[in-house]
Design a protein that fits this description.
The chain has 370 residues and is mostly beta strands. The chain has two helices and 30 strands. The strands form four sheets. It has an 18-stranded antiparallel beta barrel.
Length: 370
């Protein structure tokens, strides 16, 4: 069914406490991860090794009859080479895209339902199932029915209607048109259909709006039938930026334009496999990088609590002019995951490579949840 990406700041905890007397569900998880070291080689230059940093993600979720809320707190260490102040290198905690030290509360989220059919939401992510890429672990950008500020109307079981605005496109930036979004979806036990219309005022990309103009999405899923889930989608003026597209030394990333997406997951006893694909029909940006993204993973539960998996991914540019072409990049990621009660441990190796570029790192994580 439609998936909410739950994360909130302190107000969420206050609301959760206020409704603590009601019947509620509470969940918590903490994931500590690192790629250990990045070993990179570009063309004929010597390989370079750099510390890959450490990331910690803590998530608290609260759900009751009238309120859904949560907190997602993320902090991560940064390679010292990313910081150069007055000629000196520093090791810090913060975001790679923002040289300031600190931490991130992620997306804020609160939904209050004064009536069963009506919800007032703040920064809720209500994702169409077919917009989700299981291997990449993220969504196509037009797959979100929610907004920063908006309403969710559920007039009958299975039907969701949404409308709202993006917060920073309105407050403090009166020279820009607001980013207004709408969405609708219907789901039952067999299938799901969803449609979104984003930025109907055709606001262009700015420092407070990462959406360059009008966009919409159409998504359909065939839900779990004997272990199989299928999804298909189309996004007009959409974008996806999986990890394999970010690793290239040129810094170019993503598949953008009018995008078709396909996903599939299948489970049979101890065997499981996932596939995902995205391609653009037309690029609406002159510097659109890749034309295809594809990934597939297969795994087997060697023991009840031990799984061995291997994933392959590729980002491909169909440009025939070698001078304009972005180098195709590929990824291979074998890994093992061990589960013990509420604990999950994983270790693997990531190989990224292209024509004149290669990178190796060693992702590990420990996740505790209840």
């Amino acid at each position: 069914m439609f998936k909410s990406k739950i994360a909130a700041v302190g107000v969420a905890l206050s609301l959760a406490s206020a409704f603590a007397f009601a019947e509620a569900e509470v969940s918590f998880s903490n994931k500590l991860s690192s790629d250990i070291v990045n070993i990179t080689k570009v063309e004929d230059a010597d390989s370079e090794s750099t510390f890959a940093g450490i990331k910690n993600k803590t998530t608290f979720e609260y759900s009751s009859e009238k309120v859904d809320a949560g907190i997602e707190l993320v902090f991560w260490s940064i390679n010292e080479d990313l910081y150069d102040f007055d000629g000196e290198k520093y090791f810090g905690i913060g975001a790679t895209e923002d040289p300031g030290f600190g931490y991130d509360f992620g997306d804020t989220f609160v939904e209050v339902r004064p009536f069963d059919f009506l919800g007032f939401e703040f920064h809720e992510k209500v994702w169409a199932t077919a917009s989700y890429f299981p291997i990449w672990d993220d969504n196509a950008s037009t797959g979100n029915l929610g907004s920063d500020l908006g309403l969710l109307i559920r007039p009958v079981e299975g039907l969701t209607l949404a409308g709202g605005i993006d917060f920073f496109s309105v407050f403090g930036h009166d020279t820009y048109k607001p980013v207004v979004n709408f969405g609708a979806g219907y789901a039952n036990d067999v299938f799901e259909l969803a449609a979104t219309v984003k930025n109907i005022c055709d606001n262009k990309e700015t420092d407070v709006n990462n959406r360059d103009g009008f966009a919409f999405g159409l998504y359909a899923s065939l839900l779990k039938i004997e272990g199989l889930v299928l999804g298909a989608g189309f996004g007009y003026n959409d974008s996806v930026a999986p990890d394999v597209t970010k690793i290239h030394a040129s810094g170019k990333e993503g598949v953008s334009g009018n995008i078709m997406t396909l996903t599939a997951t299948y489970e049979l006893d101890a065997f499981h496999t996932v596939g995902e694909f995205a391609t653009n029909f037309t690029n609406n940006k002159e510097d659109a990088e890749y034309d295809f993204y594809l990934a597939v993973t297969a795994g087997y539960n060697v023991l009840e609590n031990l799984s061995a998996d291997c994933a392959f991914a590729a980002a491909l540019d169909a440009e025939s002019d070698e001078e304009k072409k972005t180098e195709n990049v590929y990824q291979i990621n074998p890994s093992v995951t061990y589960t013990l009660g509420n604990h999950e441990l994983s270790a693997g190796v990531n190989f990224f490579f292209g024509k004149d570029y290669s990178n190796v790192n060693f992702p590990v994580y420990w996740k505790y949840s209840f």
